[in-house]
Amino acid sequence: MQYWLLKTEPSTYSWDDLMRDGTTVWDGVRNNQALIHLRAMQPDDRVLIYHSGDERAVVGLAEITSGPYPDPQLADPKHVVVDVRAVQPVKHMVTLGTIKASAQFEQLALVRQPRLSVMPVTEAQWQRLLELCELT
User: Fold this and answer.
1) What is the pLDDT of residues 111-136, one digit of tens each?
2) What is the pTM of this model?
3) Which of 6, 118, 120, 135 is the 20 to 30 A CA-CA neighbour of 67?
Protein backbone atom coordinates (compact mmCIF):
# COMPACT_ATOMS: atom_id res chain seq x y z
CA MET A 1 0.00 0.00 0.00
CA GLN A 2 1.17 3.49 -0.83
CA TYR A 3 0.19 6.85 0.63
CA TRP A 4 -0.66 10.00 -1.29
CA LEU A 5 -1.82 13.56 -0.95
CA LEU A 6 -4.20 14.99 -3.54
CA LYS A 7 -4.70 18.74 -3.74
CA THR A 8 -7.94 20.27 -4.90
CA GLU A 9 -9.31 23.78 -5.10
CA PRO A 10 -12.49 23.64 -2.99
CA SER A 11 -14.30 26.04 -5.32
CA THR A 12 -13.75 23.51 -8.14
CA TYR A 13 -14.25 20.20 -6.28
CA SER A 14 -14.25 20.11 -2.50
CA TRP A 15 -14.10 17.46 0.18
CA ASP A 16 -17.82 18.04 0.74
CA ASP A 17 -18.40 17.28 -2.95
CA LEU A 18 -16.49 14.01 -2.61
CA MET A 19 -18.41 13.09 0.54
CA ARG A 20 -21.71 13.80 -1.24
CA ASP A 21 -20.69 11.85 -4.36
CA GLY A 22 -19.01 8.99 -2.48
CA THR A 23 -16.61 8.37 -5.36
CA THR A 24 -15.19 10.44 -8.19
CA VAL A 25 -12.85 10.26 -11.13
CA TRP A 26 -9.74 12.24 -10.20
CA ASP A 27 -9.10 14.10 -13.42
CA GLY A 28 -7.73 17.41 -14.64
CA VAL A 29 -4.10 16.60 -13.81
CA ARG A 30 -1.74 17.94 -16.47
CA ASN A 31 1.63 18.27 -14.72
CA ASN A 32 4.04 15.53 -15.86
CA GLN A 33 5.35 14.78 -12.34
CA ALA A 34 1.80 14.58 -10.97
CA LEU A 35 0.83 12.25 -13.84
CA ILE A 36 3.77 9.98 -12.96
CA HIS A 37 2.39 9.75 -9.43
CA LEU A 38 -1.14 9.03 -10.71
CA ARG A 39 0.25 6.19 -12.84
CA ALA A 40 1.82 4.66 -9.70
CA MET A 41 -1.47 4.52 -7.78
CA GLN A 42 -3.17 1.21 -7.11
CA PRO A 43 -6.49 0.16 -5.58
CA ASP A 44 -6.51 0.39 -1.77
CA ASP A 45 -3.79 3.08 -1.67
CA ARG A 46 -4.67 5.68 0.96
CA VAL A 47 -5.07 9.36 0.21
CA LEU A 48 -5.28 12.58 2.16
CA ILE A 49 -7.35 15.26 0.46
CA TYR A 50 -5.89 18.75 0.77
CA HIS A 51 -7.76 21.96 0.04
CA SER A 52 -5.58 24.53 -1.71
CA GLY A 53 -6.50 28.20 -2.16
CA ASP A 54 -7.57 30.11 0.92
CA GLU A 55 -8.04 27.04 3.15
CA ARG A 56 -4.66 25.26 2.69
CA ALA A 57 -5.34 22.28 4.92
CA VAL A 58 -5.75 18.51 4.97
CA VAL A 59 -9.50 17.94 5.16
CA GLY A 60 -10.29 14.30 4.47
CA LEU A 61 -9.20 10.69 4.16
CA ALA A 62 -9.92 8.74 0.97
CA GLU A 63 -8.77 5.68 -0.90
CA ILE A 64 -7.93 4.80 -4.47
CA THR A 65 -10.45 2.33 -5.93
CA SER A 66 -9.00 1.78 -9.42
CA GLY A 67 -5.69 1.57 -11.12
CA PRO A 68 -4.83 4.41 -13.50
CA TYR A 69 -6.65 4.48 -16.83
CA PRO A 70 -6.76 6.92 -19.77
CA ASP A 71 -8.81 10.03 -19.13
CA PRO A 72 -12.09 9.27 -20.95
CA GLN A 73 -12.58 12.96 -21.73
CA LEU A 74 -9.27 13.35 -23.54
CA ALA A 75 -7.94 11.68 -26.68
CA ASP A 76 -4.38 11.73 -25.31
CA PRO A 77 -3.49 8.41 -23.56
CA LYS A 78 -0.71 10.23 -21.68
CA HIS A 79 -3.37 11.77 -19.43
CA VAL A 80 -4.61 9.30 -16.85
CA VAL A 81 -7.17 9.34 -14.06
CA VAL A 82 -7.95 7.20 -11.03
CA ASP A 83 -11.13 6.62 -9.06
CA VAL A 84 -11.20 7.96 -5.51
CA ARG A 85 -13.61 7.06 -2.70
CA ALA A 86 -14.25 9.21 0.36
CA VAL A 87 -13.54 7.42 3.64
CA GLN A 88 -13.99 10.05 6.35
CA PRO A 89 -13.41 13.69 7.15
CA VAL A 90 -10.51 14.52 9.43
CA LYS A 91 -11.34 15.37 13.03
CA HIS A 92 -8.84 18.23 12.96
CA MET A 93 -7.78 20.03 9.78
CA VAL A 94 -4.00 20.20 9.45
CA THR A 95 -2.92 23.49 7.93
CA LEU A 96 0.00 24.14 5.65
CA GLY A 97 1.49 26.29 8.41
CA THR A 98 1.47 23.34 10.81
CA ILE A 99 3.05 21.11 8.18
CA LYS A 100 5.77 23.66 7.34
CA ALA A 101 6.54 24.14 11.04
CA SER A 102 7.50 20.47 11.47
CA ALA A 103 10.96 19.24 10.46
CA GLN A 104 9.40 15.82 9.80
CA PHE A 105 7.70 17.28 6.71
CA GLU A 106 10.60 19.25 5.23
CA GLN A 107 10.98 16.63 2.44
CA LEU A 108 7.22 16.40 1.79
CA ALA A 109 6.45 17.53 -1.76
CA LEU A 110 3.76 19.85 -0.37
CA VAL A 111 6.61 21.86 1.16
CA ARG A 112 9.28 21.33 -1.52
CA GLN A 113 7.06 21.47 -4.64
CA PRO A 114 3.98 23.43 -3.54
CA ARG A 115 2.42 23.61 -7.01
CA LEU A 116 2.33 19.81 -7.42
CA SER A 117 -1.25 18.48 -7.15
CA VAL A 118 -0.52 14.75 -6.68
CA MET A 119 2.29 13.68 -4.39
CA PRO A 120 3.56 10.67 -2.48
CA VAL A 121 3.71 10.63 1.31
CA THR A 122 6.13 8.40 3.20
CA GLU A 123 4.74 5.99 5.78
CA ALA A 124 6.29 8.01 8.63
CA GLN A 125 4.84 11.25 7.27
CA TRP A 126 1.47 9.53 6.77
CA GLN A 127 1.35 8.28 10.37
CA ARG A 128 2.25 11.73 11.72
CA LEU A 129 -0.36 13.42 9.52
CA LEU A 130 -3.01 10.96 10.74
CA GLU A 131 -2.05 11.82 14.32
CA LEU A 132 -2.33 15.54 13.60
CA CYS A 133 -5.70 14.95 11.90
CA GLU A 134 -6.77 12.93 14.98
CA LEU A 135 -7.49 9.85 12.88
CA THR A 136 -5.38 7.32 14.81
Assistant:
1) 999 899 999 999 999 999 999 999 97
2) 0.95
3) 135
